């Protein structure tokens, strides 16, 4: 049995703990050892959660440990995943059983797929990506490494979401549109055209935020 450690014990960390309890691997492939977070009192106001074992920096990776990263900010996510990787830690992929995963879709290591999300036919999701609740990744869509797709987003057929992209709640990405590396799409936006790397767009139709 593997011992799962969740990186981040804040709000999203608690969400991912609950997800891990509901995934098919729980008590079959892994049990939950606790959280890694440098804020030792992050769970003081909450009951029902396992302990904060240590900070990511100070934690010594043990045999049978596996990890999942519950940090929303992509730069922090990259930083703390790299620290664990440098210590030889392995990451697992968590997919909620209610997710609709088409047989020819692919998903990389360390990624997280939450309740009622869809990964359509021929879609490819990279490593350490986040596909939030009720989000639809349409047919033949590509989602790059570390990208974060929030709740109720629709990436329609053939859209390309490059690495390290953030797409906030309820945005829609039009067919075959490319969102380039490091870009950000504001909540409730409709993206009709290419989004250039490291820019933020918002609105309907989405325009660049100055
Ligand atoms: C796009 C976003 C990232 C920009 O944030 P920001 O850089 O702090 O920008 P501001 O809030 O200062 O807004 C700047 C302008 O853009 C507008 N704007 C910002 N986000 C917008 C959006 N999603 N749709 C339409 N207009 C938006 C604001 O009204 C403001 O307009 P003004 O200058 O005429 O007053 C942010 O507004 C957003 O959409 N956040 C997503 C929130 C969310 O879903 N979080 C999920 C957490 S789990």
From TrEMBL:
Residues in the signal sequence: none
Which residues belong to any copy of the PglD N-terminal domain? 3-82
Protein's organism? Ancylomarina salipaludis
Q: Which UniProt keywords apply?
A: Transferase
Residue positions of the active site:
139
Q: By its UniProt entry, which PANTHER family does this protein fall under? A: ACETYLTRANSFERASE (PTHR43300), UDP-N-ACETYLBACILLOSAMINE N-ACETYLTRANSFERASE (PTHR43300:SF7)
Q: Does the keyword Nucleus apply?
A: no
UniProt site (Increases basicity of active site His): 140
The identity of this protein, by name, is Acetyltransferase
Among InterPro entries, the record links this protein to: AcTrfase_PglD-like, PglD_N, Trans_hexapeptide_repeat, Trimer_LpxA-like_sf
